[in-house]
Amino acid sequence: MQLERILQKHGFGTRKACRAMIRDERVAIAGNLLADPFADIPTAGLVFTVDDVDWPFCEFASVLLHKPAGYECSRKPQHHPSVLELLPLPLRERGVQPIGRLDEDTTGLLLLTDDGQLNHQLSSGKRKVPKVYLATVKHPLDAGQIGQLLAGVLLHDEPQPVAAAAAEIVDELHLRLTVTEGKYHQVKRMVAAVGNRVEALHREALAELILPPDLAPGQWRWLTAEDYQNLGVAR
Ligand code: URA
Fold first, then answer.
1. What pLDDT does 234 receive?
2. Distance in Å, CA 164 to ligand 1 centroid
């Protein structure tokens, strides 16, 4: 694929802008600066460098973000910055968007992608992808609350009771809850339905994909082949 087209595909602007970047010697492969925008570059396993930052060639861009509190999962946020501001501009330009939503004050694992099929696979209610949350609650937890969460609770506007796939008391004020739906404020509403209140919420995992402990809030990384396996999707 032509170098200029590779840059364009990866969100670095119009063909003209990409050509200028190449001619300005800002683009390299394996340490060699490339000045010909029309050079034909094999894309298999390609990693190119723009302004000393590495970019793997990828048909689709899919990343894992440790979402901090204070960011909205929307392209057009209302009161707080968008999570997209935590990603480099070329990823935003490619059109990556969050897979599902976390509330502004929720922290933890968030996937973003420009791969519509992946987004659909992971957010479709039919697949029932487990989402594991750690909730800090206001009042001491007891076995009765856990029993109700597992049996199912009625939420406003939901015709059927909604049950947790798993629920365990971590300590008096911490609850680990797994849900397979992605309903609006689901965990907060479920906890409220059993007479308690979520004070803080953190998503620890999606299916078998666990938020990497070394990924600080606000940091992101590319999804790996192992991550796809842990998510139970083929890529
Ligand atoms: N449930 C909630 O209540 N909020 C979230 O952000 C995610 C799940």
1. 83
2. 13
Alpha carbon separation from 115 to 60, 103, 112, 125, 126 (Å, rounded): 6, 22, 9, 18, 18
Is pLDDT at 154 greater than 90 in this prediction? yes
Does 198 share its domain with 161? Answer: yes
Range of the domain at 173: 131-206
140 and 202 fall within a common domain: yes
Q: In angstroms, what is the span from residue 59 Cα to ligand 1's centroid?
A: 31
Q: What are phi and psi of 205, to 5 degrees?
A: -155, 155
The CATH number linked to 167 is 3.30.70.1560
Q: Catalytic residue among 24, 36, 103, 142, which?
A: 103
Query: Based on the structure, what is the number of domains in the chain?
Result: 3
Are 21 and 75 members of one domain?
Answer: no
Q: Note whether 216 and 202 are same-domain residues.
A: no
Q: What is the pLDDT of residue 157?
A: 87
Which residue in 214, 235, 213 sits closest to 225, CA to CA? Answer: 235
CA of 69 to the centre of ligand 1 (A): 12
pLDDT in tens, 1-38: 999 999 999 999 999 999 999 999 999 999 999 999 99
Q: Is 103 a residue of the active site?
A: yes
Q: Residues enclosing ligand 1, CB less than 6 A?
A: 102-103, 106, 185-188, 201
- Convert the pLDDT of each residue in 109-141 to its tens digit: 999 999 999 999 999 878 899 999 999 999 999
